[in-house]
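Troubleshooting entry. The earlier prediction with S-adenosylmethionine gave an output that would not parse, so I re-checked the input for stray whitespace and re-submitted. Clean input:
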Amino acid sequence: MTPLHQLINRVLTQSHGWLGFDRFMALALYAPNLGYYSARTQPIGLMASSGSDFVTAPQMSPYFSRALARSVQEALLETQTDEVWEFGAGTAQMAYEILSTLGDAIKRYVIVEVSSHLRDVQAQQLEPFKDKVVWLDQLPEHFSGVVVGNEVLDAMPVKLIQRSSGTWYEMGVGSASLSNSEPSQLDLEWVKKETMLRPPVEISGEHDYLTEIHPQGEAFIKTLADRLQRGAVFLIDYGFPENEYYHEQRSSGTLMCHQGHLADANPLVAVGQKDITAHVNFTGIALSAQDAGMTVLGYTTQAHFLINSGLLDLLEDASQAERAMAQKLITEHEMGELFKVLALGVGVRPEWEPLGFQLGDRSHTL
Ligand SMILES: C[S@@+](CC[C@H](N)C(=O)[O-])C[C@H]1O[C@@H](n2cnc3c(N)ncnc32)[C@H](O)[C@@H]1O
């Protein structure tokens, strides 16, 4: 039993033997000093041999962040702001490239990071920009600037719900060994409870169906909208609009774990040693943003966004190897199609059409 496992067992006991999956996921990933993101020394990297579990676009190629920087630059000008705010900066590769590319256009780069361990990694990486970079645990009451977040929404805890023989249940976690006063291992099992929770759209058919809903991600967007006075937001992640997310054939949901660059679907084993993620329902995020007063500025695939932001020009001087890595960002069967970019705005001109969405905007599919 690791200290994280002991903590989960304690919380389970206090919660009468049942934890909703979202609470379990929050503990497994973010329990202070113990959860996966708080304690794992190197979650993100190119290869398993570096000890990492998965790779993200900024890690794969610096051209991802350089192209994004062009859109950020346009948004800073449009919103007349000079701060960039990044959520969940990981190893800070993206921050490094944005700061290097935009120079004096950025007066302050604020990182909101829940993992104290990753903050140390970020501080090292951003040493050349230490006068501009600050870290916050949470958002202040009011701020203005351009907000970026790559693969942050997918790391937010989700609720799991299941239709089984026509009845909806919330999936949670229990433990067979809780009655044992000194359990020797974390022995988790799925326990379901009948629920009033439902997916945001009716699921056609009568078949059994497992899916996720995202109250935490949507609450995050609402808080962001309440506090951002003037600015633009770029959220990049894997996911779909709700009609695809809740398609009747997607009957096993999108929950996934990553360890050593291998994916599996069982979050109840190796708890704390692997990432747990779910795809993003971009319709839910866009609606939450609109309900809270933000404007949807654009929604498109990562490939369209990067190409519209000038990726191909940037690659003109790149080496063959650099081009090969950058290609993965836009190729349909790699990251180009599954990953999307959603842009939101507050206090921007209604006629502004951000650079990244000029060709291939799919806002109408949300
Ligand atoms: C999958 S990693 C992505 C890291 C980085 N953006 C990248 O692309 O390499 C998810 C990141 O989101 C952070 N995170 C999750 N929830 C967050 C929240 N509510 N506020 C800020 N960061 C959060 C995690 O700590 C982690 O750094």
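This one parsed fine. Residues 156 and 250 are 20 Å apart (CA to CA).
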